[in-house]
Amino acid sequence: MSVTTPLLELRGVDKSFGSMKVLRDVAFSAYPGEVTALVGDNGAGKTTLVKCIGGIHPYDSGEYLFEGRPVRLGSPRDAAALGIEVVHQDLALCENLDIVQNLFLGRERRRGLVLDEATMEELAAKTLSGLSIRTMGSVRQRISTLSGGQRQTVAIARAVLWDSRLVVLDEPAAALGVAQTQQVLELVRRLADQGLAVVLISHNMNDVFAVSDRIAALYLGRMVAQVRTADVTHTNVVELITSGRSGDLGLPR
Amino acid sequence: MSTNIPEGKEAAVKLADSDFAADRREHDVRAAVGDYWSRVRSGDLGAVPAILGLAGLVVLFTALRPETFLSTGNIANLSTQALPVTILAMGLVFVLLLGEIDLSAGVASGVCAAVMAKLMVDAGQPWYVAVITAIGVGIVIGTAIGWLVSVVRIPSFVVTLALFLGLQGITLRLIGDGGTVPVRDDVIVALANKNMPVWLGWTLAVLCAAGYAATQLWRWRRQRERGLVGRPLVLVAGQVAVIAAALLVATYVLSLDRAPSPLIVISGIPWGVPLVGVLLIICTFVLGRTPYGRHVYAVGGNAEAARRAGINVTRIRMSVFMIASTFAALSGIAAASRLNSITPDAGGGTTLLLGVGAAVIGGTSLFGGKGKARDAVLGGLVIATIDNGLGLLGAKAYANFLITGGVLLFAASIDALARRRRAATGR
Fold this sequence. Notes:
The complex is a heterodimer of chains A (253) and B (427).
Chain A (H helix, E strand, L loop, with lengths): L7 E10 L2 E11 L4 E6 L5 H8 L7 E6 L2 E2 L5 H7 L1 E4 L11 H5 L6 E2 L2 E2 L1 H14 L17 H13 L5 E5 L7 H16 L3 E5 L3 H7 L2 E6 L2 E7 L5 H10 L1 E2 L2 E2 L3
Parallel strand pairs in A: 3-10, 3-11, 6-9, 9-10
Antiparallel strand pairs in A: 1-2, 1-4, 4-5, 7-8, 11-12, 13-14
Helix pairs in contact in A: 5-6
Chain B lengths: L4 H11 L5 H4 L4 H13 L6 H17 L7 H26 L7 H17 L5 H24 L5 H20 L5 E2 L3 H8 L4 H28 L7 H23 L16 H18 L1 H11 L1 H6 L4 H27 L1 E2 L8 H12 L10 H21 L3 H29 L2
């Protein structure tokens, strides 16, 4: 892939909670059409970084470039306006509503006073088909009848329904079985193939190597390496996560 | 675990055509019945328990009091008996949908009715001024509750328990200890004591049945034309037929002469019934067809998800308490009309519990996110039937309390068990 400008680029981002320095001088890029895996041990600052990207936390200092232009996000709404959607680990779906109703929650189509159910159902079916989402049955099923993997799929579909440019997925396969994980990873890959920039947080090295084009490793709040997946081995990445360095990569000795 | 994406991708593309095959296929009756049965088994009981309960009660009381229970006079009495509790329950459905509770709705209805009665009797105001003021008082009470619950964030249980006490004080202050304010205004009294002309009743019933059939069939055609998920025509037609038949039979029974003496004629649908009908249509429309209704269900299902989706949860929470208190005002007016007077304990006692009970018996969940406006009507009929039947049996007051409390607890148990069932089958 000959993409040169990252869709999203962070430079020198610092973030502290009180006296706790959570992110130090972090640089991070995500490219359209690619899956960037964000790895790191518990407490390395992955979630905080994602919240900075999604506009949930303000960062203390640093640069935030979107399509090469500096932007300042004040709220998740600003992020959504740029086309940045975050799928959090707790999926935030209403179990008592069906798939269509969840996909359009808060952004319902209407005709005058009334909900335009027909159009919403058609659009939902089209979006899900476009993502080649199968084994879902009817789009009028309630979320409470869906499996964990299907719920994850609905949450991801909701994130891409709105002409999103960048989708951040926080541990999408964390609680899933083998087959469901496979389905979600396929979906992640398809999102990138459709030209979106995808940021995938994962603890599972197999998943990371299966779908990602780049790997960004956080170690104690520092970005120790951003490399092409093809250029590193399993062991490299594990060492980067656990000790911050691996051969020539990572922190200087 | 090894994942091989390119292979999976091809397989996925091949399968893309068959996605949602279930949506494009016309559901046949067997599939629809199967769907329904699996819903019932997973704890989504819908209106079934209320309808079965109502049928059971009718059979029971008919067997025990064959000559009086099914008499036309008693059926008309039953329909006005159900008015206040049904209207109260319909407002409470909105609050229950959020998983909240309004314990003050009963006494709020008493305050509103007292305000109305005082305005008419002491201030000599016409009925419409009194009614509008009473509804205004209801809105003010609801706004206060809604503000305390959604902005100050006091649990609704505590806020409304405090108001349950406080509002009784206001009614007592307005009416005076041991006092009674008579309600003699023709229009107000007519609500629960006068009947529509027979021809008007028939016209309205036929119009309602035709309108219901038209909207259902129209929706079915539209879903079919655009290839959306829909039910088979047989089921839609069956449902329309059953509802239309119920409407017309009720109209027929209420149009018979039910005067005890042959010298006069009493017939027609009581005026309160179309009022409930109008409220039912409005609430069903708002909950089922508008973005507001959708947001109420969403907040009840998962408030955090609704907030993240950009829904103003505070405003939704506030609004349901305003709706409940407004309906409480209407319920208070209906009760005043039925009793022809206001006493200091108006809306106290069991009023609120029966309202909540009606909503829950109808199928509204106490845990939020599940319920319909029609639940209030079905549950209200069940509650009124119990009250009416026990009255005919000459049951003692203590038995009345015990039985009604037991029924309430039974309905709440079914709700809780159904919810466990739903959680268990949510694969």
